[in-house]
Amino acid sequence: MKSDPVVISGGGPVGLVAALALARSGIEVVVLEAADSIPRDLRAGTFHPPTVEMLANLGVGDKLLASGIQVPEWQIRDRRAGVIASFDLGLIADETPYPYRLHCEQHKLSHLLHEALQQSSHATIRLGERCTGFSQDKDGVSVNIERTDGSVDVLRGSYLIGADGARSTVRKSLGVEFEGFTWPERFLVFATRHDLREDGFSGNAYIADPDEWCAIFVQPHDGPPGIWRIAFPVPGDMAESDVLSDSFVQSRIQGFLSPDREYDIPYRSIYRVHQRVASTFRVGRIVLAGDAAHVNNPLGGMGLNSGIHDAVNLAEKLGAVIDGAAPDLLDRYVRQRRQTNIEYVQAITIRNKRLLEERDPKVRANRFDELRQIAADPSMAREHLLSSSMINSVRRAAHIV
Ligand SMILES: Cc1cc2nc3c(=O)[nH]c(=O)nc-3n(C[C@H](O)[C@H](O)[C@H](O)COP(=O)(O)OP(=O)(O)OC[C@H]3O[C@@H](n4cnc5c(N)ncnc54)[C@H](O)[C@@H]3O)c2cc1C
Known about the structure:
This protein is an alpha+beta fold. The protein has a domain at 6-69 and 106-179 and 275-357: FAD/NAD(P)-binding domain (3-Layer(bba) Sandwich). The chain has 12 helices and 20 strands. The strands form 4 sheets. It has an 8-stranded mixed β-sheet, sandwiched between helices. Helix 1 runs parallel beside helix 8 (303-322), helix 2 (49-57) crosses helix 3 (61-67) and helix 8 (303-322) packs antiparallel against helix 9. The model has no long low-confidence stretch (mean pLDDT 96). Flavin-adenine dinucleotide binds at residues 9-15, 32-35, 39, 43-44, 106, 130-131, 163-165, 169, 271, 290-291, 298, 301, 303-304, 307. Residues 9-15, 32-35, 39, 43-44, 106, 130-131, 163-165, 169, 271, 290-291, 298, 301, 303-304, 307 line the site of flavin-adenine dinucleotide.
């Protein structure tokens, strides 16, 4: 007998990766996306080597590589002292076929995934359909849907994946706690067409400073030389109109480039940043993945990557369960992905932020010395690169039983 489809709430990159991985194994899948089109907003833009490997295995690697910029080297800088340490992923070229950070806007990946799913006879994407709730019983799930036009529907599925982002309806309906904290400051993100390579920056750089630390990364945008996205902290109580004003944005970029120049700023936005992990990723036939399960600050580019790692891991196990394996295999997904999110993604991104914003000059000097030593010692630099490229977290997850 044909089983009911796996229903996925959320057509963001994580939901679409899960859908493609399941569909490629011959499993029927329905994606519900609340928006009327695949979202195009500017968010994550860094793909680490294991993620590129996973996407290549799903058949979208070549197109993603053709759309992105390969950034093998990234820098840690001090606002005044300049480059403190540089790390070159070429040092771990024996560990991965993709020894670089691939920079590409996440909505471009979403469109590639959407295209691939449209060609699959096992996948259906229903745009403009929001999951509003669900019930589950021993044979499956019943998912409540509300369409953009106000009409409602109920869809029967075998399992429900909640990949509906940080404010996940699925997680909230389950009553699962989103444990962790929210940073008091918000992040201002803007983009400039000024090519920072002219100023000695590698395609990805982090500048330490107690007040005006920042993260910089080049994005392909609409073609070479690309566009540079820059993220700064801003006080939690500063009015949004002041944060987004020309004078404030110019003051941030002029602060570390030239104070005498007006920079072209085609894009700016502000957002709040959290470090949170759901208390569990599974309740019966309902499983969480991506931002619905965990969120973190963007320093190190790990949020979307870890969500894609969830999606691939979950699709493999859910596929096996639908083919007859015991359902508690899904608890192994939870152990592997929840544990490594806490041990690696939360720990590394919090540490990255603390490093950049350190106020105590002695502590800052010690951390910089440590980084210089790591960068100068090939075996220490290798270990640093294996962690920051997320290779270690994926290997660690595979060993959790
Ligand atoms: C403003 C902003 C900037 C960011 N910048 C960075 C960055 O620089 N670096 C980085 O690593 N990460 C960044 N992130 C985080 C990164 O974008 C996320 O980790 C990533 O989008 C997670 O993918 P996802 O598919 O889990 O969730 P999302 O991309 O949020 O996708 C969830 C999808 O579910 C849909 N949806 C929501 N509710 C429902 C529902 N009830 N029913 C059906 N569909 C629903 C939404 O419309 C959306 O399409 C940023 C996030 C934000 C908000």
